[in-house]
Amino acid sequence: LENMMEKLAAHDNLKIIIQQDGNKFVVKESSTFRTKDIEFTLGVAFDYSLADGTELNGSWETDGDKLVGKFSRKDNGKVLTTVRDIVGGEMVQSYSYEGVDAKRIFKKE
User: Are 86 and 74 contacting, i.e. CB atoms less than 8 angstroms apart?
Assistant: First the structure.
């Protein structure tokens, strides 16, 4: 499963555009597989589905300049934590799930 996820990640050409208006955010995700607009307000829980169909519920908060998301899987209640941070002009997105950490870097266009 991890190899499949790595291959999908390598070939999905994911692009993310984040727009902020105070505590409200619109995140536009576009990839080879889908295009999705996600709207959320800091601290307010919302439903989200991953590209593989996994259903999540959770919210984003800020921690300094970072966006920190905590989401629970609807099927098993396990928590996925995501951090988005700008480092040297790139957005670093870190994931943590069941003790497994992953990182993805998005370059500014």
Answer: no
- Angle among Cα 38, 16, 104 to the nearest 5 degrees reads 115
Closest listed residue to residue 109, CA positions, set 20, 30, 5, 40: 30
- Residues contacting 59, CB < 8 A, separation 6+: 40, 42, 43, 44, 45, 46, 69, 70
Length of the chain: 109
Provide the residue range defining the domain that includes 27. Answer: 4-107
DSSP H/E element including 4: helix 2-11
**pLDDT (tens digit per residue) in 62-97:** 999 899 999 999 999 999 999 999 998 899 999 999
CATH number at residue 32: 2.40.128.20
The total domain count for the chain is: 1
Measured at the CA of 18, the angle between CA 55 and CA 99, to 5 degrees, comes to 45
Say what percent of the chain tops pLDDT 70: 89
